[in-house]
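Give me the fold.
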Amino acid sequence: MIETAVALLLFVGGEIKEHRIQDSMSTCLKRKRVAERAEKASTSYKCLSSKMELEINVDGSKSIKKIILD
């Protein structure tokens, strides 16, 4: 299913290594600040609000299958 969502992206060496769906942009920015304080300088974080292809897991949670950049 395709819908607009907010995701916190972890970049290492210019590549996306991890992504997590967030409830809102404010939640994403709060978690980004916490992660930046705890992580090394070689990583960077970004919050993104975009259309994404999501899949529903067995437990009912959603995960990102593909990010669609317009």
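Strands lie at 2-12, 15-22, 43-56, 62-68.
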